[in-house]
Specification:
By secondary structure, this protein is α+β, with helices and mostly antiparallel strands. Helix 3 packs across helix 11 and helix 8 crosses helix 10. It binds flavin-adenine dinucleotide.
């Protein structure tokens, strides 16, 4: 199906009905939906294989979607409308139609029942094999030009060109370049006049000033983390925090990275407040995203607990059995009110977030106001866009893949 185009033969070459750029979650979903409708489709992927990012998701287990409430940032309304057009039930039907059974692992997080990301890729690859879908890997789109009479001319890095009636751009974003992440889609979209907002990393570790956390690396603790901008709480997440030599990671720290990156970019004074009061049985310690509140909310209850513990254990042992030794050592010389404050509102200055290489997703991308969320059709007839290349990013828990798959299915169902 792919054709090398020579200008003199241009009019003789048939337009390919549907060309999909990017063999990730969105692109594969689009090929499945369009292929099932009998639409001849050419899938182009710049890596040497499809779905490299899918294989790395969920620590190799692929948290494929989330059956709970949607959680999106950026053009979040667009995401909600796309997911209203292709909700969890329909996504599940698509997955089971290619042999993928899913299981829930709490908080709506859905995984393949095999517990393996490669089952997801294998299911898609097998399904599209029997459809009119041609796959070309090691091929990179470098330019896309709408033609005056309709359709598009696509130019690839190797100098070859094809003509297409419809095109889906599904090339993802710049997060994790080692897996194929890049910003080609943003460059192509802006060359066509679409507005692209700044790309920043999200869902990655936080970097803090190092001296206060020295000696704590490797320590894993349940905590509530509040992100502060110029002293005001702007985001909050609860779960397991992991200290590293350079800062904090773990799901709750990663959840704050998107807003932290924006604040740092805007030169806001960013801090993170750690609340470990759950170690003393204060608060519920549930792993969830929370409305940001004043970070010292548990201080009075924590002080009461510490006083009670002192009564039973004495001054020297007040933290024994509740706080790991590494942390207890840091806090050893403090009075009870100081301890209560530090266990509820221990502030660290943020110096950065780990860069794109360590980010699971990028925020920013093509503004969606000229894209139909029910079909992914853009303001240019025959041009569709889907997935992480758009100005939408989701929370952890399967929301990013869910959005990417939903967009892809919608584009494949509606391409004409
Ligand atoms: C380590 C890691 C773990 C993650 N875990 C999860 C998880 O468990 N759950 C979850 O929901 N999300 C997770 N994510 C995020 C999720 O993987 C992405 O949001 C999702 O894959 C985006 O899908 P996409 O189809 O838009 O882009 P991608 O999956 O990135 O696919 C885009 C494809 O297009 C190709 N491409 C780019 N430019 C061109 C070009 N010019 N020509 C040809 N091909 C091109 C790329 O090589 C790539 O293969 C994780 C991400 C990472 C990095």
């Amino acid at each position: 199906m792919p054709t090398t185009m020579h200008p003199s033969r241009r009019r003789l070459i048939n337009f390919i009905p549907f060309v999909v750029i990017g063999g990730g979650a969105s692109g594969l979903a689009a090929c499945l939906a369009a292929g099932r409708r009998g639409i001849p489709t050419l899938l182009i992927e710049k890596n040497d294989r499809l779905g490299r990012k899918i294989l790395a998701t969920g620590g190799g287990r692929c948290n494929i979607m989330n059956s709970g409430p949607p959680a999106y940032f950026g053009d979040s309304d667009f995401a909600y409308r796309a997911l209203a057009a292709c909700p969890a039930g329909r996504l599940n039907d698509y997955f089971s139609s290619i042999g993928l059974c899913l299981k829930e692992e709490g908080y709506g997080r859905m995984y393949p029942a095999t517990g393996r990301a490669d089952s997801v890729l294998e299911a898609f690859e097998t399904a599209i094999e029997s459809l009119p879908v041609t796959v070309e890997t090691d091929k990179r789109l470098t330019a896309l030009s709408p033609l005056s009479g309709g359709g598009f001319e696509l130019t690839f890095q190797d100098g070859s060109q094809v003509l297409a009636k419809n095109v889906l751009l599904a090339g993802g974003g710049p997060a994790s370049p080692q897996l194929g992440g890049c910003d080609d889609m943003a460059a192509i979209a802006s060359s066509l006049g679409f507005i692209v907002t700044d790309r920043l990393p999200a869902l990655c570790a936080l970097e803090t000033n190092r001296r206060p956390i020295r000696g704590l690396d490797g320590l894993r603790l349940p905590a509530k983390l509040t992100l502060l901008s110029n002293g005001k709480p702007v985001d909050c997440a609860q779960g397991e925090a992991l200290f590293s030599k350079t800062g904090l990671s773990g799901v709750c720290a990663m959840q704050l990275a998107g807003r932290a990156a924006i604040g740092l970019e805007n030169k806001e004074d960013m801090q993170v407040s750690l609340d470990f009061s759950v170690l003393l049985g204060v608060g519920d310690g549930r792993m969830e995203r929370k409305e940001p509140k004043a970070p010292d909310i548990n201080q009075k209850a924590t002080l009461d607990k510490l006083q009670e513990r002192r009564h039973h254990l004495g001054d020297k042992n007040v933290l024994v059995g509740a706080v790991p030794q590494k942390l207890a050592k840091k806090l050893a010389t403090q009075t009870l009110p100081e301890l209560a404050r530090n266990l509820c509102d221990w502030r660290l200055n943020l110096t950065g977030v780990r860069g794109m290489r360590h980010a699971q997703v990028s925020q920013g991308g093509v503004k969606t106001d000229t894209i139909d969320p029910a079909t992914m059709q853009t303001s240019i007839s025959g041009l569709y866009m889907a997935g992480e290349m758009l100005n939408v990013d989701g929370d952890t828990g399967g929301h990013n893949l869910m959005f990417a798959f939903a967009c892809g299915f919608l584009a494949g169902e509606h391409v004409k």
